[in-house]
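Quarterly update from the structural biology core.
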Amino acid sequence: MEKEVTAIKAQKRNPNRVNIYLDGEFAFGLSRITAAWLQPGRKLTQVEIDKLVNADDHEVAFQQALHFLSYRARSEREIRKNLAAKGFSEAIIDETIEKCKAGNYVNDLEFAGQWIDNRNTFRPRSPKLLKMELRQKGLPDATIDQALEKVTVPEEELAYKAAQSKAERYQLLDWQSFRTKLGNFLLRRGFSYQVAMQAVKQVWQELADHPTSPKTHLNGEIND
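Predicted structure, tokenized:
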């Protein structure tokens, strides 16, 4: 049994979607892309109606994925979780992911590289901690290891950079307190004790050698 398209009206809250009326009654909403070929007077079979609704579900899922990606890069698993939370079926999610991959909107290796570069630039941490973070994002070890292989900055340099970002806050402390606080900070960033202590000593000495260093900062010697 066929139904006739009697009206196509733009939605007030979303100009990119339209409401479809069949036989004079509201039937369902569609994206403008999905409804582009429809016009009043067109008659639809139930099979065609089902295809339209299914196609719209796929389009809505894809647009949701793009919206989710608009804030920052995402891993494949992050997108899957977001779409599942929005109520999309596993089949639609799978197809949406493939569509995103085809458009290079989703690439876990590129995501890992961007994540690592961002961390190393603004909040340095050890490769060990980076790997843990990327695992939490759902990336496989092979992809993470491939991304980490491209990192050319030595771990000691990353620890030193991280130490520098906090050193000024502790510059009035004596050596023991300085070492404890800054050392613990670096350990939380995933650096080994040896690497952390090397960075702490280097930063302490630089602060002590600075001509404007507070005299209170120089009280105390470096004793392991």
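The first strand starts at residue 3 and ends at 10.
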